[in-house]
Amino acid sequence: MAHPDDVDFGAAGTVAGWTDRGIDVVYLMVTDGDAGGFDDTITRAEMAALRREEQRAAAKCVGVDDIRWLGYPDGRVEATLGLRRDIARVIRQVRPDRLLMPSPDRNYERIYPSHPDHRAVGAAALDAVYPDARNPYAFPELLAEEGLEAWTTREVWATGGPVVNHYVDVTERFDRKLHALRSHASQTAHMGDGLVEMLRGWMSGNAAAAGLPEGRLAEPFQVIDTA
Fold first, then answer.
1. SUPFAM superfamilies of this UniProt entry (predicted)?
2. Can you give the pLDDT at residue 37?
3. Per-residue pLDDT tens over the stretch 5-46
């Protein structure tokens, strides 16, 4: 993901379901979120440190304790060869079957998920899945200097994009998603009860689109076969 809190807005309920079933989940944050928040009294370096701590607390709410950071500057991420290599490195280290990422495509129906950093990270991550991480001759230094063997990730789950082909019912895990998001106090405290209203409105709409009964809550994804 591009920033701390991205995974929690898009998929915390789904991640909680995975960890409940014993699936190991690793987070990779491309930036520290140093351009976020609303407090002019702290430095950007202090904000970055705060947001790292908030993400660690949020991750615990959904059963994740392995978080990795790339330290790219918030608001200035581009889908460069360097970013592709850095993501491919972590893919080869972790060797995941599934990769969750922001959609590289702009969503004109809901503009907020289409932050430039999100789209850049999505584009670089998809390129890292195919072809970079699976091709031993792409970024050969990863093998020659770091001993990281090529790895094929079987599927990608994209969040926030204009195409949705899969919904996950997270009704029973809504409270954990909410607690995770409230852990990002620098980003969400100002919303008060509006956070609950926003989440329930959006997630109820997802559930209706998925054909789920009234009162259910869902998270949407575009699932892509990359085997």
1. LmbE-like
2. 87
3. 999 999 999 999 999 999 999 999 999 999 998 888 999 999
Question: Is position 32 within any domain?
Answer: yes
Domain membership of residue 181 (yes or no) is: yes
Q: How does DSSP classify residue 30?
A: E
CA dihedral 4→107→133→155, nearest 10 degrees, is 100
Q: Kindly report the number of other CB atoms within 10 A of residue 203's CB atom.
A: 22
AA identity, residue 62: V
Q: Domain of 69? A: 6-225
Return d(Cα 2, Cα 31) in angstroms, integer.
Answer: 6
Digit-coded pLDDT (tens) for 161-200: 999 999 999 999 999 999 999 999 999 999 999 999 999 9
Q: 201 CB contacts (<8 Å, ≥6 apart)? A: none
Contact indicator for 204, 217 with CB cutoff of 8 Å: yes
Residue 226 CA to its chain's centroid (Å)? 18
Number of domains in the chain: 1
Query: Shortest CA distance to 129 belongs to which of 155, 148, 102, 106?
Result: 155
Which residues are paired to 224 by β-bridges?
156
**pLDDT cut 90: percent of the chain above it:** 97
1 domain-assigned: no
